[in-house]
From TrEMBL:
InterPro entries per UniProt: HATPase_C_sf, HATPase_dom, His_kinase_dom, HisK_dim/P_dom, HisK_dim/P_sf, Histidine_kinase_KdpD, KdpD_sf, KdpD_TM
GO molecular function, one term: kinase activity
A Pfam family it matches: DUF4118
Protein name: histidine kinase
Subcellular location: Cell membrane; Membrane
Catalytic activity: ATP + protein L-histidine = ADP + protein N-phospho-L-histidine
Major site of localization recorded for this protein: membrane
Domain Histidine kinase: 618-831
The keyword Transmembrane helix is assigned to this record: yes
Transmembrane segments: 380-398, 410-439, 459-480
Enzyme Commission code(s) on record: 2.7.13.3
Amino acid sequence: MKRGKLRVLLGAAPGVGKTYEMLEEGRRLAEDGRDVAIAVVETHGRAATAALAEGLPVVPRATVSHRGVELTDMDLEGVLARHPEIALVDELAHTNAPGLPHHKRWQDVDALLDAGIDVITTVNVQHIESLGDVVEKITGVAQQETVPDAVVRAADQVEVIDLSPQSLRDRLSAGLVYPAERIDAALSNYFRLGNLTALRELALLWLADEVDSALKSYRAEHGIEGAWQARERVVVALPGGSEGETLLRRGARIAARSAGGELLAVHVSSQDGLRSGDPSALAEQRRLVESLGGTYHQVVGDDVSRALVEFARSVNATQLVVGVSRRGRLMSALTGPGIGATVIRESGDIDVHIVTHAAAGDRFRLPRMTGGALSVKRRALGFLLAIVGGPLLTWLLVSIRNEDTITSDVLAYQLLVVLVSLVGGIWPAVFAAVMSGLTLNFFFVQPYYTVSVADPRNVWALILYVVIAVLVSFIVDRAARAARAARRAEAEAELLANVAGSVLRGESAVPALISRTRESLGLAGVRLVDADGTVVATDGEPLRDGRYEAVTVARRNGGPPAMLELHGHDLDASERRLIDAVAAQLSAALEHSDLTATARTAGVLAETDQVRSALLSAVSHDLRRPLAAAVAAVGGLRAAGANLSPEDRTELIATADESLATLSALVTDLLDVSRVQAGVLAVSLQSVDTPGVVLAALDELGAGPDGVELALDPDLPPVAADPVLLQRVLVNVLANAVRHAPAASRVRVATSRLGGTAEIRIVDHGSGVPPERRDDMFAPFQRLGDTDNTAGLGLGLALSKGFTEGMGGTLTPEDTPGGGLTMVIALPVAESVPADERPLA
């Protein structure tokens, strides 16, 4: 069956019109004769959205009973049975009600697509998994519901529903997004102009990256090598010297000329003709490019020019910045065009900027003899030197020839052979040695101009000359090979150090290794697959032709090995050595990941052990006092008998009663915190009217209007909660707020609704709690700023947080404007229960 197509409507924030646009598109398609059905739509009480949904076929929602609460959600089986041509599914990141086939709505959408149903869905940028931490930094709100990036990226069409930040705020102010009681809080918090502007930019940039990725895949599938200048990308080639800073700043200025321009810096480590880069200079330049908003890359290539051009093409670069050659004119004339000239010749439609710098045109130097002496270019240059230098040297020596110069003639030709071997390696040197021997015999050994030798000793001299020349060329060639191997090892070490640096800077170890390996070796794609087939990390293009090389990555802890799959080109021996080193680092990284998971488990056990120790401490200290008082009171009653006066008897009974009540409350708290820690808290969810629970908690505390101010929303729907646990949460939090509030101020209790969540805000104007100590507030047996043992065991907030989370809500501390602490109790709204069936708390 052909898989359905997915269209995602992406918004920067709630209220931009995603659901409205989805319904409009559904109506348009239905008018064109397409079979469109609403699988699930959340109108959030917006009349215009609800009106637009009228007239479209609707698949009835599924009803699920969870802990006594009736919840409704999308009926996947019903939609599959109805099998419309197009299904409208709102809120892709939504978490389904317990008991449904899938945990997340995007999994339901995937099932619809597998069934051949096209889906139009909506999602906000803050719900995309990889952007969660960025959104939290912008808005201060952590997103609980997310959808994996791969799900959205796999969509056939992603469309941004855009609305300017001010227009969205105007819609909010007009009551078109939230009800009136939520408008002021929303405008001053999540919907601030700066937040909305940043979220809008985030959505547009995410889509731009997705479009860029799709463009890259299209070019790869169709074999398009030329650059498409959809976005200005400037690649700066870093040679490894101090001039790199000049090149980077020039490249940054070029990239800044166009909106959305990107800066990429690349350093090529090679065994063929590339100077060894200065590590400290490269480290400084890496920091510089990151401070300029660019990215740093490193590749290994035999040919620097080709590696630069290939990298530029792989990132679809439009500009390439290269420094002018350090070599002077004489060296350029002797050794041919430099890297810049070659890059210009091979760059095609990529613009190349040759930038001058202080190190340009450096002093004359002989060719680098320790470079890659075995390249085709170097061997050809060696043969050329032998062919041209031999006749020139012969002409010079013949012009001054006499019987006394034979020794200097031999040494001159020996020098020529050494130079040829230094430049071109062993085979050009052997050729030069043989030709030099024949030339010496023909021009400088009597009889002249013949290859015959009159004196037999001269024959041995010529043979020894050729042998010595061959041995010298062999030694020089071995030295060149050793230098090449050392340079390769240096490049590999630099690459591994670069990967290690990425990990130390906070990048995830395994993805960093995979990404750098693919990039450095110029592979099309690399991925790490676990023994069970799970893809641990991947980078580059997916495997297309089925050909790849696999390297086993063993786990040091004895676990099943993973497989490193590489495709793009066949690896040579040196690249295989590098892959073996990467596999060793991957093995260590996987071990570290496994140990981290084990440490997390051990941390949980340590926390549990700490709680147990604290329980024992509490039993030995806090429980002893009321227990001792009760025992003493009962003992006094028993010992005195009828001799006690009525007043003393009444006082002893009151003491025993108070102590036993205190003891009962402490034991109840200890049992409750034990259940919370063990995860076995019994919760009976019901549809609860929040005002009733708030008033019951105030009655229990004995708090009146002089100490507590109420601002309860009369239209707040019931919440899904356990009324007994919710009352205990409110009592604990209110007791803390009243205790720490100044005498002249009142604690404020306010209720409101935000989407599918109801909030109870308990506001005091006390001294507050520093942000760094807020996590400690919820730890058992903690009394922040309170050392009086009569305050209890310090379990109130720990229990409150555990009870709230057990009911599916959250308990969050916030700063009170003007000073103090605000505790926000957020619980899900239970809208599915009819009003006449709502039980009173």
